[in-house]
Design brief:
Shape: elongated
Radius of gyration: 28 Å
Order of helices and strands: HEEEEEEEEEEEE
Helix content: 10-25%
Number of strands: 12
Mean pLDDT: 83
Number of helices: 1
Low-confidence stretches: 14-40
Largest sheet: 8 strands, antiparallel, barrel
Distance between the termini: 65 Å
Structural class: alpha+beta
Length: about 230
């Protein structure tokens, strides 16, 4: 009878030891999962390039007078670790003094636009889920955002307006959408180069300083190259 009790106590002792080890292993595993799911690979990008306004004027796309500068800062945060979908927060500002013609009239507006928006980025290649960056890895993406903008347009030189356009000089604020495409070129685990091009559309047709005679609105576009740093 005594031997049975000793065996039972030994078995209970072994089971308790196994349960404690199992709990420890489960706890460590839980901590590991918790750390891995919260270690987001968020990043920031700062870049600069060119901007232009496509409206009613005839602009020469290979003429520097058709372009101005653009500066963009963007924060990118994955929905979850190693995910192709990302939240974005963007600030960009641009300014240009264009020179073109409408019929024979000189068209020379000074246009400025500042945009703040939130949106979503999608990496086209699934390799981003593995998050095993290597030198010269190419990660193309598309992005859409919505936000607010502050816009101003004034004529740097008097516009003759023989075509009898409505004039829309002034400053105003409003909401808009932006669509962006680009590619991230990985340099190492933290650094990368990002090329991008973005577009915003004005259905009211006022951004270029003229209310045109067609149903088409104005398009603001900007693009450049930036430095991306992943935390």
């Amino acid at each position: 009878m005594l031997s049975h009790e000793i065996v039972a106590q030994t078995i209970l002792s072994i089971m308790r030891e196994i349960n404690i080890k199992a709990l420890l292993c489960t706890g460590l595993l839980f901590l590991g999962v918790s750390f891995s799911t919260t270690a987001q690979h968020n990043s920031i990008m700062v870049g600069g390039g060119l901007s232009t306004m496509l409206g009613d004027a005839d602009l020469n796309i290979i003429d520097w007078d058709s372009y101005g500068y653009s500066i963009t800062a963007r924060y990118i945060h994955p929905f979850k670790k190693n995910d192709r979908w990302n939240y974005t927060l963007e600030y960009s500002t641009a300014s240009m003094t264009q020179r073109g013609f409408i019929a024979t009239d000189l068209y020379k507006p000074k246009i400025s636009q500042t945009y703040v928006g939130v949106g979503c980025r999608f990496y086209i290649f699934n390799t981003i889920r593995e998050y095993n960056p290597y030198f010269m890895e190419l990660l193309p993406f598309i992005q859409a955002s919505a936000g607010v903008l502050s816009h101003s347009v004034y004529f740097a030189e008097p516009y003759a307006n023989s075509s009898d356009f409505g004039i829309s000089e002034g400053e105003y604020q409003g909401a808009t959408l932006q669509f962006t495409g680009g590619i991230l070129i990985v340099l190492d685990k933290h650094w990368g180069l990002e090329g991008y091009a973005g577009f915003r559309y004005d259905p009211v047709d006022e951004w270029d300083g003229l209310k045109g005679n067609t149903s088409l609105g104005d398009v603001f576009s900007h693009g450049g190259i930036g430095l991306n740093y992943a935390f």
